[in-house]
Amino acid sequence: MALDVQAIRQDFPIFQREVHGKRLVFLDSAASSQKPQAVIDAMTRIYTHSYANVHRGLYTLADEATTAYEDARGKLARFINAADTAEVILLRNATEGLNLVAYSWGEQNVGAGDRIIITEMEHHANLVPWQQLAQRQGAELAYIPVTEAGELDLDVLPGLLADGRTKVVACSLMSNVVGTLPPVTRVAEMAHAAGAIVVMDGAQAVPHQPVDVQTLGADFMAFSGHKMCGPGIGVLWGRRELLEAMPPFLYGGDMIRTVKKTYAQWNDLPHKFEAGTPPIAEVVGLGAAADYLSALGMDAIHAHEREMTAYALERLAEVDGLHVIGPGADRRGGVAAFWMEAAHPHDIASIVDAEGVCIRAGHHCAQPLHECFNLPATARASFYIYNDEADVDALIAALHKVNRLLQR
Ligand code: PMP
After folding, report:
1. Which one of 152, 160, 316, 381 is most buried, by most CB atoms within 10 A?
2. pTM, 2 dp
3. How far is the CA of 203 from the centre of ligand 1 (A)?
4. How many whole angstroms from 33 Cα to the centroid of ligand 1?
């Protein structure tokens, strides 16, 4: 069923406000999404009725908080179809999940002379941890190139994998700049056939399309709760046998079973990777966000964004001197990064803000990808469940104003 965008907007209190006396047009969900009342309520409820630290308490409030926290983990496991809730690790953000894998799995499994393969379209969160791991271990870092059309050039992959030295291939499910949806399952098949593990960055995909970790071909996948209507939090999913074999990333309370003066033993999964007090209300809020998105239907969300993206690309083509980077609408998710001959991306963002339109400008934490296009920065509009064609129309009108003001 198609999304009822007007009804969805009613669920998000932020859309009751105006910006500069104009209707709020929020086109920056790729950075972080807005929050529905159901998520705000779930967090308020735990703070007002059931708040206490989790796992160690022997009193009612602690018990209620622990149940709410662990129930939310179960919801997230179902949301990505994890085979086991213990494979779902709750962290600060997607970046922490990717760092956890690069440190914990990486330092144990990647040595001098080994190879790590990533792609030129990665967000810095799935690039810098691997670059630094390669430097620490004396390993080689190789890149799958991006074509002019913003697609991965997979022709180089068989050659890179042929000598069996590759230990890990890391790839995002969707680019946060060009919106490309790479053929990740094919990449995973090739990587696995060569004996490498596969780490996927699901930050831009999990909020927008059905993702099933049992069929995806990933060994690890990180994603952000705050981009899927939840609060500031992230999730790492990993295959149980890999997580079991890995050392902890952070040490302290909750992640141990026994501590003696000279040694310690680790708690079971997932607690081994959740040291210290976790973001309790945030986890509960993210559970409510998973419920909210599931009720709308991930297939319906994906279909809606495809339509929005096709419409946006068509309308952006009408703006004089504007160039969108990346593939056509049938090959990308709901993101459109562009540059204009008349204006710097920061000026574009400021001018459209005066019309109530929120877009992002800069390198979007993907500097090597921008280098592929010889651009230091772009402006970026991104779409979610609460956007409709009227939002795109408002953006286009504001972009015509950019040209008018800068006399193009
Ligand atoms: N990967 C991609 C593709 C992203 O778009 C982002 C967020 N911009 C991240 C990783 C990092 O996510 P987080 O902010 O939750 O660490």
Report:
1. 381
2. 0.97
3. 5
4. 12
